[in-house]
Design goal:
heterodimer, A: 938 residues, alpha/beta, four-stranded parallel beta sheet, four-stranded mixed beta sheet, 40 helices, 54% helix, B: alpha/beta, Rossmann fold, 2 domains, 17 helices, 11% strand, globular
Amino acid sequence: MSQGPFGALRGQLLDAAGAFAEAPDAVAGILTGMVDDVDRALSEELEIFPVCHHSPASALAMARRLREKQPKVVYLELCEDLQPLLGELRNCRLPVALQAFATELDGFPKDWGPLSVIAPITEASAEYQVIAYALDSPDVELVLVDRSADHVFQWLPREKESAEGDAADTTDAAEPGEEAALHGDAVGVEIGDLRPRFAELEEHLLHHGKVRHWSEWWDQYVEQPLVGADYDTYRQVMVLIGSLFRRLAPDADARTARDEDRERYMWTRMREHLATSAADPSQCLYVCGAAHAASRVEQFGLASAAPFDISPRTASRWLYGLIPSSHSAIEAQFGLAAGSVSIAAATWTKAVTAGQAAPYQLEGQKGATKRKGRVRPQAPAPPEAVTDRLSGFLSSPPALDALEEAELLGWSVDIVRLARRNGYLASTADAIAVFETSILLAGLRNRGRPTPYDFQDAAVTCIEKDVVPGRRDVRRLCEILLGGDRIGEVGYEALPPLARDVYDRLAPLGLDLEKRTIQRALIDLDAHPELVPCSHLLWMLRYLLPDDAVRPIMGRRQLGERSIQESWDLAIGRHQRSIIELGYEGVTVEQVLEQRLRRSVWAPQATAAVALGAVEDAILFLGSRRFADELGARAVELLAAERTVDDAPEVLRRIRRLLAHYRSTEPTLPAWCEAFVTAGYAHYCTLLPTAFVDEAVGVRQVAAMLGFLFSMESFALALGCDRAQLELAVRQSHPEAPAKVALSWAAGSQLGLLTPAELRSRCDELLANPLVVPAFPQYMSGFVQALEPVPVLAPFLVELMSKAFGRLPDSVLLPWLPLLITTLRDQAKELVPVLVREAGRTFPGSLPALDAWVPPWVARAVPKAGPAPAISGPVADLLAGHPAACDAVAELLGCAGGWQQAVTVAGGHPEVGELLARHPRSADAVATLLSHGVAGPG
Amino acid sequence: MSDEMLRAPAEVKYAEELDWLESVDDGPKPFSWRLSPRMVRLFVLGSERADGLDREISQKWFGDRSFVERSIVTLASDRGLLLIGDPGTGKSWLAELLAAAISRNSTLVVQGTAGTTEDHIKYSWNVSMVIAKGQSRESMIPSPIMTAMEEGVIGRFEELTRSTSDVQDALISILSEKYVSVPELDDDGIVFAQPGFSIIATANSRDRGVNDLSSALKRRFNFIRIPMVTNKRSEEEIVRFRTVELLRRHQIELDVPPTLLDILLQSFADLRAAAAAATSDDERLESALSTAEQIGVLEDAILHSHFFGDRTLRAGTLAGSLVGSLVRRSPEDLAILNKYWHGVVEPRSKKDGGEWQDFLEGGRQAIATLS
């Protein structure tokens, strides 16, 4: 145990441990160890700068230290492969996240993909200070030393954890908003993760600290006192906390093991760098999380020579880029309390305004206010010996600031104004009450001055009543007031080529696409043909991006349709991440689309319908005949390999549309279409008998199969298919379900296997049989489905239904009417209009006409009483020559009609007879021809 | 004195603790407060080792620390405090504790009902005395609120929203002007509030809409919404705390086994989940299933086993009490419990065995008796 400057403190802590702890040995061990850790970290040759994420105190201390020390080399705890991205930060509005992204995996479980690692960077962070300092100062080298994105996943246990930085969120989680989802499902890494490693310790700290959540604890116990602290105090306190959390972490924790590996990695990398660059360690600075500063791995320190084998990266192809981030996204990703990052940012701004440090800022940083280096002149401090600042920090309360009262007053007035605007009945009296309550609360909570959390509580107490009048409650309004959510944006220059291409190509629309509001684009394609490519691109983006990123309000893109005008709602600024991630897949939108379509048809679960859909999309969006043909060929393969007919309706719909498109636009059909029709004809013929009996196959599917077979028949026959195959298939089908029976009858009638009269009589039998009547709606629905393959059946169907309504007794009819309607609506929605139209044609249109109306089928059944057909020939001549026999028979039977004059000309049209008699030659010629034909070669 | 009362008010019950706290309290005290705000918080939420006190102060109210802090701060400010929440969430208990700690008097209570009149809030007259001596301060009967004003202590108004709006509005001038004028008296006609006076009101959120507060009155109150306790651990603490108290009050020596407490908490948690998932009121038990209700069930079971049983608490008795307390509407509530018993308790008793078995049997019998 060394007797460093911490000897006195060590003694104090040990005494305290002896007084309180039940097992003094354990506690004493931890306390001694903590002080040792601090000692070791601070006496290390390479200066270690411990940081905590989203801590303004860290950032301030960093800015001050950098100005003072001006190090030549800075080592930063950040994935080493993200280094090339850092320069692009200046083109972005912070916060943004550095992202590493991999879709082509190697050595990782397939279901992990796509892999994505993000490291958010905010302006109020120590790492941004480092980056800004290093990139804009000549001769300064910034070295990222943490493991690469590939290692992040290599070191994850194979049962993937939800996230690297996750921890039990003890706060009341707000509903995840749109901004909170900015990071997607990426694994987050952050610099300086400093938080208790297990829930009990955190709970203990919160309980004894009398605060609600971790961010508040940190803010009250570390952040606020440290804001004005000097560098040595800062370092000691940070390492102390880091050490405590490390020492209290469970031993067998996988995360601890991973962290130790990271420390080994970082120290190994730093030693390597120092060896190759020959930099002077005293001119270097190592920036890492406070927990890593208190590391106890044997590789710790430049003096150590302990080896560590860094495993090679896998062959996964990693792509890098920046994506927009937001305070709420960071809070959601790392389990911080809502609003805590915003409050940290507010604290940082306040400290900077108060002139506590001159922060660094990247040259040309987008979206930042230019700060003048307005800092109190400070003489460069001579290097101090490490002295004990910790005892003072632990015993003295933070100093009060005169500015703070004015700030609190401002907040109190503003929150009342904001609340009033949001429907609350708040007045100046409330502002006074909020101000007073904040101070009282801070006093009660033993805080020197009200923190934003006290202010928030006070505002809720004084303004919130029994109901929330508007969309936001007072707590949320306070968050908005204290800085609100800040959403980053990636600048044009930092975008991947695809995203830049998208912005370029949409430029003719004349909209500011970087705005986060929804933009309305109006495109008149006739008046402005130059906008056609824009429209084209928008349709592609519509296909590729999430639903609400690009939304057509007017205009459609379908085969055979062309919009004259289009109007779009564009939320491209809000979905920047999606576009950037598209950029990882390819260089242009077209390429990405082609890849996606190709992937969809080669996916293991692809079906013919999917492939036909892809063909359609390829025609619509890419217009490439070659590519469409390739996808079509795949569709034929898929169809032939299919064993179910679930997709038959979809296939039928799509192939019909495609055939219509090709017929109208191209001189010949593509070869794959012909192949598809012949394959489909054979395929569906084969499957038809089983589909008819299989209970799992619905009527719609069978109807669609028949539809395919009948409507493609002529085309298929022309391509060499055989109709006998279809006839046999229908004959082999013996369905039992009523709907399918009806369908098979309809198919039979279409094929001529069943005459209309037979069909009619079968249906009449059904209606006459009281045992079958309950199933009649099922038959009806089968017939309605049959309209798809056999459209000529429509009049018959109207007849059938009218008969049913007419003949069935009310006791049967009334109960099944609702059933009929629901059955029709469920199973044949799109065919009912056909039926209704046919009924409209059949039935009279007005009420008076109805009285005189005779249904056509009844009219057909009673033939008009007209002259008997003329009978001539030898039999008639014989009977006429010897009428006695006939008379006798007639008398016997009671027929009193007597002999009638035979009409010479059939049909009772004398003028026809006259005409033929006047010009006999044509009739003679026909007779000659006929007699010749009959007696001829046959 | 507390031994002679059925239920002693908090300031009597914890008199010794309060005296001690007052003796060690060196913090600044607002107005005429008997304890400083920090000590009030300590009294309500209990002490910890870190507070550095010589004796332990037990926790008396269980819930979020910030509710207590906000309540104390409100009382130190200009406004009244309105505790709002579901029945059985401990609003009145918190009000009583605060009044006891701050002014050592939690009994200046007006109970809000449909029959509450303005006289109950301000003052009324002793009619015979008025006839004998005329209207004077002696013949006036001050309300508890007026007494609180005169003494500079905390007055309480229970179930504020049960009384009608015009009666509620009598509080407006009391809360803003801090005096009550008595026009019947010629001189000395104004009763001023002394420093330290404030009002703690409670309101039931289920009564919302019956007699809504006017916005003028709303402005004069700070609202603190007390949520239902759903954290199992705190709920266990509350039930245990209250049970010990009950046993002491009834002078019963009976042991509540932890397994039975678990069963009780679990079954309430199940029933709450079922109520949350239900789509209509018929599928929901009429009871609010609050923590207070649990304590009621447990108390019932304890008394039952003490007087009619073999002086040990059994799962069967607990089940009987639970059914008995929760069935309020004959077919609906019974059907829900029947479903719960056969759908949840039965499988659980098969799986876990132990006390659940007994619980199952007891519940079945109770349901059968009521059916």
